[in-house]
């Protein structure tokens, strides 16, 4: 689902950037600028949200380890140990089960959108 959303977002960003560059009617340009900004916000929220989830999940491991979990009762110690083991692997969104979705991904998407738009405008 994340892959489809990001892929469609990239396509929409490229198309709207082309229409912004080549458009001549001010009202149409304004509408396309709105679409561009909405798609950009959607893609940014995916990337930023996933980045924040990864950061918080790594902070969770440190917070549990820093607490005095070893002096608590046995049930709590077992739960804390399981949480520490589980939180060693950061939780984050992935595209195609291979590529992490984070702020670096957002930067790559923006660079690709700019490059594809510049290439398309150069060929027109």
In whole angstroms, the N-to-C terminal distance is 33 Å
**Continuous helix count:** 4
What would the principal axes of the Cα set say about the shape?
elongated
Major sheet summary line: 2 strands, antiparallel
Mean of all residue-level pLDDT scores: 87
Percent helix among the residues? over 70%
Question: How would you classify the helix and strand content by structural class?
Answer: mainly alpha
Radius of gyration: 21 Å
Biggest sheet, spatial arrangement of strands: 1-2
Strand content: under 5%
Keywords: Cell membrane, Membrane, Olfaction, Receptor, Sensory transduction, Transducer, Transmembrane, Transmembrane helix
InterPro entries: 7tm6_olfct_rcpt
Transmembrane segments: 5-22, 28-48
Organism: Nezara viridula
Indicate the topology.
Layout: H1 2-22, H2 26-66, H3 74-87, E1 94-95, E2 99-100, H4 103-123
Antiparallel strand pairs: 1-2
Can you give a write-up of this model?
This is Odorant receptor. It is a multi-pass membrane protein. The chain has helices at 2-22, 26-66, 74-87, 103-123, and strands at 94-95, 99-100. The chain is mainly alpha-helical. It has a two-stranded antiparallel sheet with strand order 1-2. α2 runs antiparallel to α4 (103-123). The mean pLDDT is 87.
Task: Name its key features.
two-stranded antiparallel ribbon, transducer, transmembrane
């Amino acid at each position: 689902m994340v892959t489809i959303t990001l892929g469609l977002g990239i396509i929409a960003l490229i198309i709207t950037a082309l229409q912004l560059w080549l458009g001549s009617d001010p009202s149409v340009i304004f509408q396309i600028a709105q679409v561009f900004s909405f798609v950009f916000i959607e893609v940014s929220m995916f990337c930023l949200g996933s980045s924040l989830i990864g950061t918080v999940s790594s902070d969770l491991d440190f917070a549990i380890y820093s607490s005095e979990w070893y002096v608590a009762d046995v049930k709590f110690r077992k739960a804390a140990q399981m949480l520490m083991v589980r939180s060693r692997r950061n939780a984050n969104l992935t595209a195609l089960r291979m590529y992490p979705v984070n702020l670096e991904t957002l930067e790559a998407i923006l660079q690709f959108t700019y490059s594809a738009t510049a290439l398309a405008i150069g060929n027109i």
